[in-house]
Amino acid sequence: MPDSPGLLRQGFLAAICFVFSHTTTLAAALDDVEAVPHLDSAGREGYRDFLTFDKHRAFAIAPGGAWSWKGGESSAESAQQSTLSACGEENGQACVLYAVDDRVVFDARAWSRLWGPYLSRREADRAHAGLNRGERFYNLAFRSAAGKSMTLADLRGKVVLLHFWGSWCSPCRSEMPELQKLYRQLDAYPDIRLVLLQVREGFAQSRKWARQQHLQLPFHDSGVTSSSMDWLRLADGNQIRDRDLAAVFPTTYILDKHGVVVFANNGPVMHWPQFLPLLRDVAARSGK
Questions:
Q1: Beta strand pairing call for 219-220 and 192-198
Q2: Does 65 share its domain with 163?
Q3: Rounded CA separation 97/90 (Å)
Q4: φ, ψ (nearest 5 deg) of residue 97
Q5: Is 123 among the domain residues?
Q6: Does residue 58 sit in the same domain as residue 123?
Q7: CB atoms inside a 10 Å sphere around CB 89
Q8: Please, is 127 exposed, middle or buried when counting C-beta atoms within 10 Å of its C-beta (0-12, 13-18, 19+)?
Q9: Strand, coil or helix: 251
Q10: Which of 159, 167, 227, 239 has the greatest CB tally within 10 Å of its CB?
Q11: Are residues 75 and 203 both part of a single domain?
């Protein structure tokens, strides 16, 4: 079964997050590739290309991993305009400038506010079921670690980070320590929930591996019992194939308080704690 990372396009590139904060990002050196938030490996390579280009040049980013750059423009203003235009057209996401010519111009304080807009309750009620941004995620049925029957609809009013994984999956295993770090930071945010569902293996097998790694995460039982079982249960009694939810494993969705998809990532994320400001924004501004 393939488990290699991939990209899920939902109007923007899937994200692998890198360090940013109000202080460190604003003070970052222009050539500090790791300081640019939300760039995956392709984005980091694009930023390195940007650094080698002559003036006038600009590099733009958006929450979720979208990025674009232009170089060799007639002026800095032209570079900014063409970069923002290309970034928005390609990714359908509000983009902001990170660097112009030889300066980092990124405003970290405004960054998380770009995550919306979020659907109202009425809009969410009319949303189609699906995986794309702005669609209501399928109402899966599963069990808590204690065996309690649950559905995603039971978690309405909470922001849900929904994560599909398996202990057989090398990229899944590699990101678990980062998910653990994020989970520890969520103690102060009771309206943000993690739901980890195993695929292609039984719950006992996945939990055994997690215990061996001393992981303390909210693992839930998807109902999958073997490697040959490639579907999950829906609350209405129907089934849905796991590959219809996740092209590769791991795959992660962030659902707002109405159960609407606001973010999806196909593949591992190596710096999950850096999503906390965005999760907090979804918690504060969705569900109205």
A1: parallel
A2: no
A3: 15
A4: -75, 135
A5: yes
A6: no
A7: 10
A8: middle
A9: strand
A10: 159
A11: no
Question: Which residue among 97, 114, 131 closes a domain?
Answer: 114
The predicted model scores a pTM of 0.73
Radius of gyration of the chain (CA): 20
CA distance 36 to 99: 10
Pick the last residue of a domain from 99, 114, 129.
Answer: 114
Q: Let me know whether 270 and 178 are in one domain.
A: yes
- Say if residue 78's pLDDT is above 90: yes
pLDDT bracket for residue 107 (50, 70, 90): confident
Give Cα 68 distance to the centre of its chain: 19
**CA-based torsion, 95, 12, 257, 176: positive or negative:** negative
Same domain, 205 and 175: yes
pLDDT at 91: 57
Total structural domains in the chain? 2
Helix (H) or strand (E) holding 121: helix 121-126
Q: State the Cα–Cα distance between residues 66 and 114, nearest whole angstrom.
A: 12
Backbone angles phi, psi at 255, to 5 degrees: -110, 140
Q: How far apart are CA 63 and CA 114, in angstroms?
A: 7
Instruction: Flag whether pLDDT at 87 surpasses 90.
Output: no
Is there a single domain that holds both residue 123 and residue 238?
yes
State mean pLDDT over 90-117. 81
Same domain for 277 and 152: yes
Q: What is the token pair recorded at 186?
A: 């969520």
CB–CB of 217/184 below 8 Å? no
SS3 of 105, please?
coil
Asked if the structure places residue 152 within a domain, the reply is: yes
Tell me how far apart the alpha carbons of residues 77 and 63 are, in angstroms, rounded to a whole number.
23
Structural domain includes residue 15: no
Q: Which of 207, 284, 252 is nearest to 64 (CA)?
A: 252
- What pLDDT score does 17 carry? 30
Residue 79 CB coordination number (10 Å): 25
